[in-house]
Specification:
By secondary structure, the chain is of the alpha/beta class. It is about 35% helix and about 20% strand. It has an 8-stranded mixed beta sheet, sandwiched between helices. Bound molecules: zinc ion (ZN).
Length: about 250
């Protein structure tokens, strides 16, 4: 039963058929891991917190630097050299005092992944590298957890939602490793090739909307459908990720 204040606060979400009053309860009890607090994570975390998600884990080993500010605008000049997880944690508590936040000021690696990635309703990749995305994909499958991956570089953005339950043998949908079987396929990075802040924001908004719909149990979610935006040519696509029968990730875990 929602309080009058919460009913008013979440009234625009409650109107949505995919949410309703019961949906706010789902969000309140949801546990979400966000890996990476750059341009994607600093957008997604406040969207989830303000929508009523009750538990957020934030993982990033980095400190705020001057070059972050043009697209990671939750950080301010006064925050430079402070840890990203502590700055974001403070901002989110101001925004949503009832939010439960657990911070992990460490880099996600193979050695700590099993410990860090247990017990979530959803994992969101907001990292800036293919190695982390592939690691998250493997651990999402080993724990059966839905995963949302996003990326942006130059004027291009992409995002996809993957659910281990809908991939693997006997099913058509593939996982992230089916899409990018070799880690070095995407060699570029924002550091080497640059990125426009709003393009990162578009990827982050797409991920945040997907995340809330996943947590609400929206049956219309299209798993393993890659959204790609090229702002240079003003085009976007939705691509089905076909399952690779030889994929060592989704073939081995189903
Ligand atoms: Zn696969």
């Amino acid at each position: 039963m929602l309080s009058d204040a919460d009913f008013l606060r979440y009234s625009r979400q409650i109107m949505l058929p995919i949410c309703g009053e019961a949906g706010i309860g789902k969000l309140t009890s949801a546990r979400v891991m966000i890996v990476g607090l750059g341009g994607l994570g600093t957008l997604i975390a406040p969207y989830l917190a303000s929508a009523g998600v009750g538990h957020l884990d934030l993982c990033d080993d980095d400190i705020v630097s001057l070059s972050n500010l043009p697209r990671q605008w939750l950080y301010q000049a006064d925050d430079i050299n402070q840890s990203k997880v502590s700055v974001i944690s403070q901002r989110l508590h101001t925004m949503q005092p009832e939010l439960n936040i657990t911070t992990h000021q460490q880099r996600l690696r193979e050695q700590n992944a099993a410990e860090l990635l247990q017990g979530f309703d959803l994992i969101i990749d907001c990292s800036d590298n293919m190695t982390t995305r592939q690691l998250l994909n493997r651990y999402a499958f080993s724990t059966g957890t839905p995963l949302i991956i996003g990326a942006a570089i130059g004027l291009q953005a992409q995002a996809v939602a993957i659910h281990p339950q809908y991939c693997g043998p006997g099913r058509q949908a593939g996982c992230y490793h089916c899409l990018y079987p070799i880690d070095t396929l995407l060699g570029g990075s924002c550091q080497s090739e640059g990125v426009l802040g709003p393009v990162v924001g578009m990827a982050g908004c797409y991920q945040a909307a997907l995340a809330l719909r996943v947590l609400l149990g929206d049956p219309q979610i299209q798993w393993s459908r890659l959204w790609r935006l090229d702002h240079g040519s003003f085009t976007q696509q939705m691509l089905h990720i076909a399952r690779d029968p030889a994929c060592p990730v989704c073939a081995a875990t189903n």
